[in-house]
Structures are given as C-alpha cells and as structure tokens.
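User: Okay, second chain of the day. Same drill as before: sequence in, structure tokens out.
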Amino acid sequence: MHILDYLFSLFIEPLKLIFEAVFFYAFRYTQNIALSIVAISIVINLLVLPLYKHADELEDLQREKKRHMKPYVDRIKSAFKGDEKIMILQAYYRENNYGLKNVLMESVSLFLQIPFFIAAYSFLSNLQLMQGVSLGAITDLGSPDALIRIGGFAINLLPILMTVINIVSGFIYSQKDGIKDKLRLIIIALVFLVLLYNSPAGLVFYWTLNNVFSLLKNIVSHIRKSKASAKPAKAVKKAAANTGSFALIMLSGAVLTVLTGVMIPSDVIAENPQELIKPFGMNACNPVMYLVSSGLVAAGVFLIWIPLFIFLTREKTLKYVTYLAPGFAVASLVNYVVFNKNFGNLSKKLIYEYDMSFGIADILINLVADIAIIAVVYFLFTKLKKYKNLIVSVMLVAVFALSGINVSMSLAITAGHSYSYANTADEVTVPMTTTGQNVVVIMMDRMISCYIPYVMNERPDVKEQFDGFVFYPNTVSLGHSTNNGAPALFGGYDYTPANLNARSNELLVDKHNESLKVLPTIFADNGWNVTVGDPPYANYEWITDVSIYDDNDAINAYNMTGVLTGGNDVFEELGEEYEIRLNRNLFCYGLMKICPYLLQPALYMRGSYCNSDLYYGGSGNIGVLSDPAHTQVGIDEEYLEARVVLESLDDIVEITDNSENCFFMFANNTTHNITLLEEPSYEPSDYIDNTAYDEANSDRFTIDGQSIHMEGYLSYAHYECCVSSCILLGEWFDYLRENNMYDNTRIIIVADHGYDFGQVDDLVLTDLDFDAQHVNPALLVKDFNATGFTISDEFMTNADTPSLALEGIVESPVNPFTGNPINMDPKNGDQYIYISGSGDVLENNGTKFEEEDHYWLAVHDNIFDKDNWSRLPGEPG
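Assistant: Same drill. Structure tokens below.
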C-alpha cells in the first residue's frame, strides 16, 4: 500500500462502505439499479444534511463578515496602492481576525463534497452490476449516456444537465454574494462537468440527483433565510459545550476501532498467518500488514466520521450519546468474547464453511444481554462521572493488549519466513518410466470412502478408467484429521497417534516430518528415482516446507498447489482483487462479529459482506451460497488451486524409457476444499444450479437397496468434489495408458480421514456418540498389471499404505528412522483411534496429542459391526 491508499482507507473507505450497504439492500428489495441509485442519493443526502447545515452556517458567518468588511476594504483599495495598500489591508484583516482560515471556511461545503464524491466515484464507476443496464433512453448505466448523437459524434447529456442544475443551485445559494463568488461556483460546476463527462451514466445520474437535492435545499434555505441566521457567540458556546463531553465518545470510539480493526482481524490472522502469506499466486507479504488497512478503516468509522456526525448534533442529543457510547463499546466486546459463534472453518476469503444461522432463543438471549449491558453501563456512568474516562481507558488498554498478543503470535509464526514457494511451476517435473516400474502414492485429503461405489455406479466411464483397482471400504484411519491421521498413512504403524504419544520426549512436528520421509527414503536407498509433491503439513507449515528433504539429494520435492496455476484465467485476474477485498473485509468481519446475532447475517450476507457485485453479480471470485444444497454463485479458488494440480499431472510427468524405477508421492485437496460443481460435468462454474439434476437423479445414491443420506450443502459438495477428483485421476490414468505407463505402475489412492455426515447408518455409533464415517477414509489400490475393478471387505487401515507400496519391491522393509519392520501385523487386534475437537497444527504442536476434549476409540476387524467399537477409559497402554 502507498500513502494515498492509507488516506483512502482512513477517509474514503468508511463512506464507500455506506454507499455499498445502502445500494446492496436497496437492490435486494427493488431489484432495480436506478431505484437503488436513487436510494443511495436520498440516504446519503439525509445523512450529511446536518454536516451541510453546519457548513452553511459557517459559510454564512464568513460571508456576513466579509460583507461587513467590504466597504472598508474597497475604500482602502481605492485610496492606496502598491505595498502600502497590501500592508494596510493586512493590518485591517488582523484587526478583524480575518485570515486564511476564514477564506477556507467559505468553502467548507465544497471540502465536504470531496470525500463523498470520491467515495461515490470509486463505488459506482467500478460497479459491474451496472454494466448493460438501461434507464429510459440511456442504454447502459455502466457507460457514458451518449444521449445526443450528431452524425458519428456523441454528446453526453446527463453531465450537462447536472452542471446546469448545479449552477442554478449555486446562484440561489449565493444571491447576496459578489460576482467573484458566483464565478467561483460556476468554475466548480465546470470542474465537476469535466471530471464526470465521460463517467458511467449511473455515476452521473447519482450526482445529478445530489444536485437536485442541493437545489431543493437551497430553495428552502432561501425562503427561511431570515430565521436561519446564527450568532457567533452561540456557535462558540455550543462548540465549547460539546468539547466537554467529547473525550468519552472518542475513547469509546478508540475501543471500537481497536476491537474491529485490530483485535478481531488479528484473531483471524493469528489462527493461521501462513495461509495468508501468499494466497492464490499473489505477491507474498506478511499478513500482519493487512491490519494496517483494517485499522485505518475502523479509525475512519469510529474516530472520524461518527464523532463528526455526533459533534454536530443538538446538545441534548449529545448528552445521551456521550453515556451510550461506552455501553455500545462494552456490548460489542461482550458480543465478540462471550457470544462469538462460528460456522465451521473460516476460509482465507473470510467465508464460513457452513451457512450462518441463529436460533430464535439465541437471538433473544443475545439481544436482551446487549440491552441490559448498555442500560447498566449508562446508569453506572451517570453515577460515576468522575471515573468514566478512566474506566473506558482501561478497557482500551485491555483490547490493545489482546491485539498485541495476536500480532506478536503472528509475527513469531511468520518470522524468518521467505514468503515464497520453494520452486516455480517450470521446475516441477515427475519422471516416470515406460520400461521399469512406477509406484504412485496419492493422498486425497478427506476423500470419503462411502462415495466410491456410487461414483463408479454413476460414471461407468470412470470405473473403466480405474481398471485394475481394488476398493477397500472396510478401512479405518487412526486419527480424525490430517494432523493425527496422515503420519501413519505415510510412515506406517510407527506413526499412529498412540505410538507418536509414546515418544513423548520428541516434538510432534519432528515425528510428523519423519513420517513424511519414510517411503521416499526407502525408495531412494533402493535406487529409485523419487519425487514428492505437497507433503501435508511438512514442518507444520501451511505452505508445506519441502526443505525437510534437503538432507537427501536423491529426493526431489516440490510445492505444487499454489504453483501450478498458470494459464487459468481466475488466478491471472485474482491477485490484486483479492488483496483489495481482504483489506476491506477484515474490518467488515470485525464489524459483523461485534453486532448482535440479529444483525450478523445481514452484514455477512453469505460471505459477500454486502458487496453487490459478489452477491448479485455472479463474480467468479467468491463462493457464495444462494441455496444450502444445490445452487452456488462463484468459484472457490482454494478448490481450484487443488484441482489445477490434478489437471496438470500430464504436463509435469517426464516420460523416460530407461529402466530406472520411479516413485511419486503427493497429496491433494480437491476432496477437502469442497465446493458445488456443475452437474453432470462436475466442473467449476461461475453460477451453478443443480436443483433439477439432483431431483431427477436422486436414485443415484441407492445401489442394491443400500443408500447414503444426502442432505444439505456439505454432502453434495463433498460428493461432487469426489466425483470430480475421480474423473481427473481417470483422465491421468488414460494418459499413462497412452504412454505405456499404466500396467507397469502401482497406484495407491488413500485418504487421511473421512468426515462425519451421518450418511451411512452402519457407521453411526449412537452409544458412543460418534459417527465412524469421520475415520473411514477412501483406499483404492492398483497393482502391477492388474485388471478389473473389484471390492474387498478385508479390514484395512490407512497405515497399511507403506506396506502396500513396498510389497514385492523391498524385501522385509525396515523403517530407516526407528528400525522397526514395516508390515501389516499391527492391525491384528484393536486399532486405537485418537479423537479431539481440533486438528490444527498451531494448537497441536507439542510432544503429544493431548487436547482437553480428546478421547480414544478402539475398533477391530469390521468397522461396520457396531459391536466391534468401544471407547477407552484413557490413553492406550
């Protein structure tokens, strides 16, 4: 950001947010662009009326003073010349306390117009929703009106009409002024004509409406002029009286500024600062810098514009506002700290995983609490006037301190971070042989096992592409999240949560890194060409740190997600737009979180935060749900980042005909970063409506009398992303076939965990209050030269992956780090599963998995037999 960006955030962005909110709701109820612009004009003009009224009073005072001085000034100018005239005029001005300040005060209303003009210009000139919308003879509000055409020459009529109205209004306003003042008004009107002549008609229409409002205001003011004259003493008295109570309002505003602009946004950033370092191919930056923008916007709202409006209210109103302001500050803090309700994971675009909704009881309890808090604070502050500023100051210090902790945490986590990927897209190459053997291990994060039969039933073409695969539905993960489920997947039974906890003198991150190196190290030690892509949570970094493999030159490791985005229009267009949105929405998110439940959905608006282009315009840069199950506006870039990797597999494979064997291991999030996809192609789209398709094909979720429950957005989004992943992998398998690399390739597709949707009745363990679908990961294995697609009921765990990968290749394989044999023997007997409320590596990063809410489950032989499940009283011995 540059200095102008900072000034824009401080002075203009708060006003622009008002424009956006008014337009958003006007359009929501009118569905008419022109009427929405009229609504903006009415609301904004009514809002600024006290400002302009006060400005007019100041200007009238200065003009009256100037008129009073004019005869003496004219006499001096006629009687003296040169330096003597200048010196006498200066002395006369000093005697009458008239200087540059008085000259500037004659144009206060103009200065007030400037920020509102810039805000309107910034909003309406960039409003995509206006493009192509007509208004009477104006064919496109998003372009200059071109209402008059002479041959091939177009004349824009609206700016001319606007200027005429502006001049008429100015002449009425300055009837008693001299020719110079009238000339100044004409020049200002002509400046606006030049500035707006080639602007979108919608913007000029708005400013024309403003001039009409100003004309009416000046007519009324002229009629009542005799009653509107203000005395200087009264104005000074009012200002002095206001100043006495204003400190409390400013202190309360400071609390709200820090709360909405720093503390709450810093909470978001501190949750995972690494995720915001380099999102969607943007230029990397320290995410803490976003707090500068959100803090400035908050300061503009609570320390500049709201106090300015309050300052111009009547003395009686100011008295009540003075004591209500601390109450609102306290209630806002309580809303965030006590009534802070979340709806699943919050994406880097500040969109919740689930739709926002509150129960009636919750809304009423929260509302009553807020009203009670405001009333109590108001009562206390009227009784404790002596300590009121001190109390608010203490609250301000507390909020600052909490914000400082978050900022320090974020800086500590990102300290020394390079803010860049380890490689470029051109550097990612995956050797695969046509004459030797290839082994490919693919971790599909959160790929849900129960979907696989239904995917193959719906898409016989995909089933054919998966020729040779064995599907193992009776598979369990030994952890419920990537953090505690992936280590055993990559390293085997030495890395189950129970065995990791047994090594309690070592950091979890070190044990996690070790698990990621087991298979690559074994294959490299046996002379294989080894490639690793996106090892999950390497070094417990969100942007996975492939430097964990630097100690082994035989292993080539790459970042792929976030790197392989070239050629995709969404990513090419996104960068700057995303940064602008985050700078705006961090404050909007903070503002939403301090509001009562009743107002939060109205501010959140499914992740658009009242951005009309995103909510109504079908922008491809947001995943906004318009219906929880079947329709969606926008593309989810996090899903797209992962999808592009699967689409790029053909491009990154380097075909070799030498006999060197090749090992390729990578993780992918297309089944984790879920979104609705257009059916039946299962591809992303700006606008999706699967309602008709889902209704017509609801029977696809029943096979041989066995059904999975499909209810709500999450079920459909997960299923559709699973289908899409299988389609993309199937296309890659076809590529391998075409290049003689399929039969000589062993492929393992395995998930680190599932998800708990209650879709499979046999996995809902009512007695244990647990849905075993959460730990039922997909597992599909294709061996060398295998044919057909088969299903095996053999009991498996995802910790069998290393044994499956090494079978028949390395005799009696041994873990190079622990010295223990790698085999499937440990799955004979109970398997211990770690469950907790969190899978965040920023929280689970000590030496053991031991969150306060954790517990252990045991299962053996058949996960679909509920009698095989039990809950342990403590940690496995």
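Residues 228-244, 620-624 have pLDDT under 50 and may be disordered.

User: Thanks, on to the next one.
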